[in-house]
Every structure is written in C-alpha cells, then in structure tokens.
Amino acid sequence: MSEPIIQTTGLDFYFKEFKALDQINLNVPQGSIFGFLGPNGAGKTTTIRILLDLFHSKPGQVKIFGKDLLQNKVEILGKVGALIENPSIYKHLSGRQNLEVIRKMVNVPKSRIQEVLKIVRLVDNADKKAKNYSLGMCQRLGLASALLTDPDLLILDEPTNGLDPSGIIEMRELILELNREHGKTIFLSSHILSEIEKLATDVAIIDEGKILYQGKLDGLQQQGSGIELIIEVDEVKKAAQILRDLNYTISEENGRSIHVPIESKKEVAKINKSLVTGDLDIFQLKTSEQNLESIFLNITKKLDQ
Questions:
Q1: For the chain, domain boundaries
Q2: Eight-class DSSP state of 82
Q3: Rounded CA gap, 120 and 173, in Å?
Q4: Do 6-222 and 224-300 fold alike per CATH?
C-alpha cells in the first residue's frame, strides 16, 4: 500500500479557550477524492488552514508527500493547489489577466494560462471582465489559479457552496476529470453530503472537532444500517417523540412522514406496534436504502427537528 499523501497525527487547535480540533488523525490515500464531511463549524476549515501552514497545531504533526510540513513547507506547498472559501479575484480585470497576476507570482510559463483555462472550461469567457462572471465562473477561475503550478494535490474548501444547480454540476464534473484524467489527489471539504456521495472514494466525518469515521465511502455505507424506514402517520410530531423515546435517530421529519435508520427489517414490527400502542394511525411503512445523509446523522446523533 502506498504512503498516504496527507497524514496528520494528533492535531489540536484552540481559539482562545475554545477547542476547535481534538486529536485529528487523517490518512488521505494518494489518487483519492477524499471527502471531508461535517456541519458548519465542525472544524473543516481550521484543519485545512493547518494543512496549508496558515494555522499551527500544538501538539500535532502534518506530513504531506511523506515529509514533515514545517520542515519542508516551501517544497511541499509548491506541489499543492488550494481553493479556500471564496477565491480572491480582481473584478476589474479579465479572467486571463487575473491568471497572469498569479502566474507571475508562481513563476510558471505563460502557456500554462491557456492550458488551465481549457481545463476549467473558461476559454470562451477568458477575456471578459471578472465582474461579469457568475459565481460558478468565479469558482472555476479560482480553481484555474490553483492549477497553474500543476499541483499533485488539490485542497478544496466547500467548492460548490452557493452555486446554482448547473454550477454544482460543472464543478462536480471538473473535480472528477481532474482526478481521473489529470491524476490529481483531491481533498474536498463539504457539508453537502449528497455531493460527496457522488464524488468521494474515501471520507472522514468530523463533528465538534473530532473525527467520527474515516475510511472508504462504501465502508461508511456498510457501517450504517443500509436501511431506512419511512413512516407515514397521522400525527408526525407525536410519532417522532415515541421513536426518540425508543432511542431511534430521526434522519428526516416533515409534515407527512418520518425517516428512521434501522439495523434490520425485524425492527419494523416493533416500531409499528409502539406507534399503534401510542394511539396513532399508520398509513404506510416502507423501507429504502439508507443514503449518506441518513448515515451521517445517525453517526453524529444529530436530530433533524
């Protein structure tokens, strides 16, 4: 097995008295699309800032490409591209001019600008002023900037955040292309679980500064029960409370139905009996494969109320 492209050991980080990260140990396989999942405020961006030497963990160690980051940061960061939150773009310049500014800073051949414009599909809009770009185009321009040095590792922090559906699809296709056709390892943070489900080969779940799961995406799906019970009932709130009293996690609750992760179909009869005993009318009970969001909610024990 090849050495992880990113390996962190015992990362802790405090904002004054608040402990933002608690013993973060990550192993990101080379060649993977690694989904770093967690709700807002879970510690994703703090971890990324440590990986990019913007924050420093004490104690803790970061190794990238098998080398200690603090001792080899110039060499390492020269092979890493990053898109963190909203990219910095000069709105009065064209997309091509923006890339020229970055190109001079990182000292790569001028021909590289056209290459990255082609990769991110901005050739036709390269000479338009960035102030006329959509949010999706701005994100792709930021990604083009990160690709100028032809990095082996891309670190992307919430790259689809705020995009419309077409922008999300464009970014998803780009990420898959960069991994499969250009050989980039991609560390991708997001709270949009459905997007990670479509992209990632490996995942880590972080919540309240702690890693709750790390491994292959299909391993996460196996760790979850794989089954979700959908209950249509006359009094949803009352039914939800009965289920919580039975220590079930509610993955979704709306005005018509409740979704509950279960371990086996044998539990359906138990749940039905409890709801009927609670004087509720059950209109329908059906099972479906549990999606990543349900598994995530089950692991973190967060109730969607």
A1: 6-222, 224-300
A2: E
A3: 10
A4: no
Q: Is residue 4's pLDDT more than 90?
A: yes
Q: Is the pLDDT of residue 148 over 50?
A: yes
Q: Would you say 187 and 28 are in contact if contact means Cβ atoms under 8 Å apart?
A: yes
| Gap between the Cα atoms of 178 and 303, Å rounded | 36
Check if the beta carbon of residue 56 is closer than 8 Å to that of residue 50: yes
- CB-count burial class (<10 Å; 0-12, 13-18, 19+) for 17: exposed
pLDDT at 196: 85
Q: Is the pLDDT of residue 305 over 50?
A: no
The whole-model pTM stands at 0.76
Give dist(CA 177, CA 206) in Å, integer: 26
Please tell me the distance from the alpha carbon of residue 140 to that of residue 178, in angstroms, as a whole number.
Answer: 12
pLDDT grade for 81, boundaries at 50, 70 and 90? very high
Cβ neighbours for 52, distance < 8 A, ≥ 6 positions apart: 77, 80, 82, 84, 155
Tokens 């499969």 correspond to 180
Classified by CATH at the fold level, domain 224-300 comes out as: Alpha-Beta Plaits (3.30.70)
**Cβ within 8 Å of residue 248, ≥6 positions away:** 260, 261, 262, 271
pLDDT of 38: 87
Superfamily covering domain 6-222: P-loop containing nucleotide triphosphate hydrolases (3.40.50.300)
* pLDDT, tens digit, 9 for 90 and up, residues 27-73: 999 999 999 998 888 899 999 999 999 999 888 999 999 999 999 99
Contact 143, 121 (CB under 8 A): no
